[in-house]
Amino acid sequence: MNPTLLMACLLCAPAFAAAAAVEADFHVATDGNDANPGTRAAPFATLDRARDAVRGRIAAGLNRDVTVLVHGGRYELAQPLHFGSEDSGTDSHAVIYAAAPEATVVISGGRRITGWQRGQGGVWTAKLPDAQDNTWYPRHLWVNGRRAVRARAPNVSTEVPFWRLTDAQLGADLSTYTLAVEPGRLSSWSNLSDVEAVVIGEWEIVRKHLESLDVQRHTVTLKPPHIDHHRAIRPRRGMACYFENAPELLDEPGEWYLDRATGVLTYWPRLDEDLTKTEAVAPHLTRLIEICGTAGEPIRNLHFRSLRFEHTDWPLPELGYFGVQACAYNRFSWQEVTRTWDPDAQRHVEPAIQCIYAARCSFRDCEIVHTGGSGLWLGKGCRENRIEGNVVGDIAGNGLMVGEPAWKHLYYRDPAFVVPPADVPTNNVLANNRVSDCGTVFHGAVGIWLAFTDGAVVRHNLIHDLPYTGISVGWMWREKPVTVCRGNVIEANHVHDVMRLLADGGCIYTLGRQDGTVLRGNLLHDVHYSPVALQNRNANNGIFFDQGSLGFHVEGNVIYNTSGPPVRFNQCGRDWHTWEGNHFFASQPKVAEGKIGSALACDGSASVEVPHDPKLEPEQLTAEAWILVEQWPQPLRIAAGKTDTRRWILGKNANEWEQGHYGLVIRHDQVGAYLNTAGGRENSFAVWSPEGLLALDRWYHVAMTYDGSDLKVYLDGRQVASEAVGKPRVPGKQPLAIGRRQDGYVHFTGRIDEVRLYGRALPESELRMRATKPAAIAQPDQQEALLGYWPFDAAPDVDQVIRRMHEAVGALVPGHASRRD
């Protein structure tokens, strides 16, 4: 990381570190009394009372900062703590709510469950009268700070905790919706209207209550009403699913069930839990903090420090949850959404902390954990707020959110739509936060989500262990019109272990035009190929530029260990952005003994990606390499009776049907080459050697040339195939990959060494010399028309690049020890 960037991270350190030591204006303690004056000796009992006392100071006119010191303990809210314009600080003076030094302050929206009785077998029960009265039916339970599992099938402890749909049928009139699973899965569950089906789509989920169940036909009927949904999320044959919240499904430790009719909560303790001593909490509130100013009178200079916020709920809508993306869900059928673009057509899973028209406010060194919805959202009219040094985890939905989503519909309806300037979230900072374990219930959640926002800074956050994407930027599926989503900075973040359940995302995911947005100095790695979701093999990337992404500057990022290509483009292009000094590796490169020095060791997933550069698109070319095949390619089934044993040694521009593609390839024991001159099948040319020329565990020199007329392939310096082409090359704009086809379709297995690319077609005599005397080849700077040289002797430098990035981004994040993952 460069010194300027590191200094920027240091400047994000909390500015109020010493404020807690200042004598407070008001005190709150669990043993206080709201009739007290709120002094240290006679504190208030509730935060509501302290807020009202601060209002009195504000009404009289602030001439200094006001601090409320909250002493250690749990504060269970009866209703959300609301802050309006009457609770605002001024431009000069702040209002601060802070935990007392060394104190643990918990602000909870939950209720502690007591009165446990030992039941039959290993279960325990407790009575919740409000549930029986139908005034409280919590969807979550935490035992000793750990989220309990709502009774489900299949169990989360199974090796693959999902079943597969064998069918899904939505009635033409939307009146019925049935799902079918494999025989023997379903049984006669009771309290059926409380049971929920969860279906795993590609990048979001569907969650619906059941109406009926047919064991003999292994089908369930979902409770109406229904909507027609996006085809990638809509339940269909082959999708993964599970069912939860029936008493018969409570069959292993860690699971729980609440009977609505009797009000009896049943829990099977884990081995380390004693319900006579443990703490069990169920959520009562959806929201903990509401900061709601107005466009004309925003809340200013209001700060929260070192507080722990936890235990919220979010009730499932009557329609159910038809996920769109990043915890947005549809309220109308897909056709209706795209016909009307009604701003109310989609909503988001609600956050525990909501800010609207807040300016220069902050949450610092806090914890936001154990939620039934999302974490914190800076919405409409939020300007220059700072979310810093917080720990965000065990979140049912998104972690941290900035920006307004509904404007998408207004832009679609009217491209000339202009957002009122006072409504635009502007210059908000999210820095030094640790965000993990989001999407525990709504699995399409992201760690940090930015919608329409101007000048947001997402800097030096540690984001990990997520079912879907790490950071999502943008909320418009078009490159036009120009929107208020622009000038955002995503910088020096460490994002890893994402895409653990869903697909079509990555460490950083972008949507739509965002002029002036920067992705700089991020460390992105370990992007998984979902064992569950239906997905494209190219999906799940370090950076995924999705539809309409335009106007980004991409600089100094390190990407490795991604299941798809490190960077992917969908309905946009690499040349829509600017690039500088990035290091992209599909997997962390490994080396082995090479023909000369070290070689790239390809194990069927390892490869190296070279960013696009116009110089890698010569009119005439030679690509050469030394290869050692360690095992024959396993046949890949591509159609009935057809298999594919091709493996790319190197390839540029996606695949053989893509404009500008050139590739040096093997097919079992043949060597070959591809050249596409202008895109499409009609411009794709291939040439293959006779069979039987390659053997295992032996080094070969292979090369392809194109002189503007003929495509030729060479083995050990001798021409083995040729094909007349006679067309000029139209250059492509995508990366070059070594060790795989560039689009990630297949990977080479063996070793690759001494890869070179030239801007001319080398003659056979020169290639024969290279094959017979490899050590005598001139140094790269002495070779005419050499465009690229990859010897892999410098592979340890790659390891050093990755290690340095780990050290740089891991230096300041709370609780993050710098280490190699």
List the helices and strands and how they pair.
Blueprint: H1 3-11, E1 26-28, H2 47-60, E2 66-70, E3 73-76, E4 81-83, E5 95-99, E6 105-108, E7 110-113, E8 117-118, E9 124-127, H3 129-132, E10 142-143, E11 146-147, E12 149-150, E13 152-153, E14 163-170, E15 177-181, E16 196-200, E17 205-214, E18 219-222, E19 240-244, E20 255-258, E21 264-267, E22 280-283, E23 289-292, E24 299-300, E25 302-305, E26 308-310, E27 321-325, E28 328-330, H4 334-340, E29 346-348, E30 351-356, E31 358-359, E32 362-364, E33 367-371, E34 374-378, E35 386-388, E36 391-395, E37 400-402, H5 407-413, E38 429-431, E39 434-436, E40 448-450, E41 457-459, E42 462-464, E43 471-473, E44 489-491, E45 494-498, E46 506-510, E47 513-520, E48 523-527, E49 541-545, E50 550-555, E51 558-562, E52 567-569, E53 578-580, E54 583-584, E55 591-593, E56 598-603, E57 608-610, E58 621-629, E59 636-639, E60 642-644, E61 646-652, E62 662-667, E63 670-676, E64 684-688, E65 699-706, E66 710-715, E67 718-724, E68 736-738, E69 749-758, H6 764-772, E70 786-790, H7 795-809
Parallel strand pairs: 1-2, 2-5, 3-6, 4-23, 5-25, 6-26, 12-20, 23-30, 24-31, 25-32, 26-33, 30-34, 32-35, 33-36, 34-37, 35-38, 36-39, 37-40, 38-41, 39-42, 40-43, 41-44, 42-45, 43-46, 44-47, 45-48, 46-49, 47-50, 48-51, 49-52, 50-53, 51-54
Antiparallel strand pairs: 7-22, 8-9, 9-21, 10-11, 10-22, 13-19, 14-15, 14-19, 15-18, 16-17, 16-19, 17-18, 17-27, 20-21, 27-28, 28-29, 55-56, 56-69, 57-68, 58-65, 58-69, 59-60, 61-62, 61-68, 62-63, 63-64, 65-66, 66-67, 69-70
